[in-house]
Amino acid sequence: MKQAENYKKNAGKTAKQTFPAASSAPSQGGGTSIGSIKPQAQTQTSANPYQQKAMETASSGELTLLLYNGCIKFIDKAEKAMDEKQIADKNNFIKRAQDIIRELMITLKTDSEVGQNMYSLYDFIHSRLVDANIRNDKEALHEARQFVVEFRDNWKELMKLDRQQRFGEGGQA
């Protein structure tokens, strides 16, 4: 547990982070208590205005889903770059996937056994991404992707169940 707290305190001090700091405020409306993410609005002139507005208005659950999808996207791009022997691109894509996993780790509520177990799994995913990057290990990349996809799918199901409980039938994630 102390390792998680130390990681949270030191994150961002030693490594350049792609994502802004996030608060771990509880989700509104009785959402899940596993963790919540609410990144600060980014002001990028190169960002798609539609995507920018979607991120600014998304709930913490939707932002978590966006992070999972982004991580999968970067892992897929890293695999393609690995196949094409584009080492610099592979490195950049894997580093971006690692940034997302670190963001999920930092914002995770670790005051329960579930949160602590998720933290351990995120740490494992991160280490597999590091292995994939250092060793050009496709198997490690696939393993990391498999875990992220499973987290994403479970998160979508949790969001769906939460919506059904709060609003009745018909909630789609």
From TrEMBL:
An annotated GO cellular component: cytosol
Pfam families to which the protein is assigned, alphabetical: FliS
Keyword Endoplasmic reticulum: no
InterPro entries: FliS (IPR003713), FliS_sf (IPR036584)
One of the GO biological process terms: bacterial-type flagellum assembly
Residue numbers spanned by region Disordered: 1-53
Biased composition range(s): Polar residues: 15-27, 39-51
Record's subcellular location: Cytoplasm, Cytosol
Keywords of this entry: Bacterial flagellum biogenesis, Cell projection, Chaperone, Cilium, Cytoplasm, Flagellum
Family: Belongs to the FliS family.
Stated name of the protein: Flagellar export chaperone FliS
